[in-house]
Amino acid sequence: MSMEKSRVTATVCAGYRLWAYGLCAAVFFAAADSAAVNAVETMPLPCPQKCKTDVAAPVALDETATVTVDCPDDSAVAWLALHFKQWYGVHAPKAGRASVRSRVAGGSEAYTLRADPSNGVRIAANTLAGVRWAAYTLRQMAGVKRGTFKIEGRVLPSLEIADRPRLAFRGVHLCWFPETRPAQMERAIRLAAYLKFNYVVLETWGTFKSEVHPWRNWPDAPCTKAEARRLADIGRDLGVTVIPQMQIFGHASLARGGSAKHATLDMHPEYEPLFEPGGWVWCLANPHTQRVLRELVAEMHEAFGSPPWFHLGCDEANRPPCPLCAEHPRAKLVAGHIAGMAKFLKARGARSMVWHDMFVDAKDPRWSDADNRANGTAETAAALDLLPRDIVICDWQYQGNRQDAKKDWPTMEYFRSKGFDVCGCPYGNFRSFKPMADALAKMGGMGFIETTWNTLSGKGGWEKMYALGAAAAWGTAAKGRDAFANALRTVDNDMKVGDYRDTGVLNWQIPPESFQK
Hints:
7-stranded mixed β-sheet, disordered N terminus, globular
């Protein structure tokens, strides 16, 4: 699109929140492609690209309007009416049931959205999930009536959209550090739903407040059982399943390795026998370790509403075993530990997930490319064949600042050849997100989990991960900076954010350490 055409389009669309997908967006999101010729201001863009809009024929979206819902799930109309009220207040449109029901092509999450002056606004979907995604698209496209002091209702362009996701499992991985402001976790979950992710893997780094073993968390841990259930309920209402993560192998310190912190041993050194020397890895051969971990996992699983998934971590357990563990063959010890925990969770109705890196040998020439993140030994790699095949392997990829769009994913293919479901989990190289999602769709991978690691805690960069991850998983192009800012601001408004630090993508515009007295 030429800059002149971009300016003309932006002028025509002013007042209806349509975005000219021009050079600035392409620079900010390098993974964006040219498919978004209509490029309405939605994140992610519709897939496939069937999206017709006409701003010259506006459609009211206010208290005078009724949005008709065609969905076999009878709860969809009530859900939409409730959320219209929450979003729009006194100017909320009504939600009504369609007299005739039809099947929408494209699967359980597919939807169509139509708006025209004669027939109003109509949503058709096969499930409540599809209605939710349609509602988020509608909300992003609706602009306020112009020329007023305060909001007096909204309008839509006339439009016709047929949309559906490419991947069924679309997740984002979040880390809750003690440095993370609690409000940021809620907004991260809300934003995930708004961008049409349907799963959040929530890893609590010593911030889950255990009542069973209170020595296992940092003092004043903010994620109480009540808070965990509240966040899970928010996610469920908005269309996101929150999957709790607990480390049962490595990362037993619940702190980043370089920090030399330990959530347990810094405050309660009496529990040292539960860990291997140094505290980084759990002592797997200690029967008290097995008991404690099951009690902690059960407590966390219940606190988050007993979801059908649970992530067991298991990455970077690269420390030698203690004398007690050395009495056992390493492969059998590791596999028995993980398989036993997976069986325990299966009895609770949950399927287990683990990170991939300990199950590929770092000395194996097949994984010589550092991007494959092989952290295992021959022994831990051998444990893979001893694991039950209903465990999901989450293949995380760090690619630093590489500028190429990586297109080969040998470890994902390897785990699939072994009979495991695989989720691809990108990070760092933004150009790789779409190729990874393309590869997952082609190979029949289970899904896509965008990892954010420590970036959510005020560092910045996570906004690109969210935007590009959502686009890649949905199967379409990415949008520009303003589109993301609009989405984030909408979530902040839903939460009624009142603290400066909980707005935008950074806690501070100017880092506190640079303040001059």
